[in-house]
């Protein structure tokens, strides 16, 4: 059954979409931009933005009862490929901190993102014995 995931620990949708969908075995998050869910602020620094987006992804996965290690695929949208190394550092640290194996990933540069942020990250996770 298709269940909507809702949490105040990730920013609310800014358009016609939901934060996440739980299909039982698979969980999909919407793309998470680096909006702090507590105060609506967006950090200026790209490394801080990367951390914020990853924390928002984690909040949605956690709201579905899963852990970071359940993530099997991410897509990273960035507005400037010159930030690639910085974002990779934060990204690697995030998964290492959670003792999680790295998911598969696609990373693309895009012209522009909502709220003019520097990156957006979406994820797919799997539950239980699918891992
Ligand atoms: C921020 C988004 N995920 C959106 O606008 O689709």
Automatic annotation (TrEMBL):
Enzyme Commission number(s): 3.5.4.-
The protein's enzyme class: hydrolase
GO molecular function ontology, one term from the record: hydrolase activity
Keywords annotated in UniProt: Hydrolase
UniProt cross-references to SUPFAM superfamilies, sorted A to Z: YjgF-like
Domain of life of the native organism: Bacteria
Pfam family, one: Ribonuc_L-PSP
Keyword Hydrolase found: yes
Family designation: Belongs to the RutC family.
Subunit details: Homotrimer.
Protein name in the entry: Reactive intermediate deaminase TdcF
Taxonomic lineage of the native organism: Bacteria, Pseudomonadati, Pseudomonadota, Gammaproteobacteria, Enterobacterales
Chain's gene name: tdcF
């Amino acid at each position: 059954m298709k269940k909507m995931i809702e949490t105040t620990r990730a920013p609310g949708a800014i358009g016609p979409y939901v934060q996440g969908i739980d299909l039982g075995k698979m969980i999909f998050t919407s793309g998470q931009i680096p909006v702090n869910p507590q105060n609506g602020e967006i950090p200026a620094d790209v490394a801080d933005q990367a951390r914020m987006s990853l924390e928002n992804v984690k909040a949605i996965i956690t709201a579905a009862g899963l852990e970071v290690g359940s993530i099997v695929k991410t897509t990273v949208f960035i507005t400037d490929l010159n930030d690639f190394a910085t974002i990779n550092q934060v990204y690697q640290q995030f998964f290492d901190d959670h003792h999680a194996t790295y998911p598969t990933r696609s990373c693309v540069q895009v012209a522009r993102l909502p709220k003019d942020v520097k990156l957006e990250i979406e994820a797919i996770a799997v539950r239980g014995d699918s891992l």
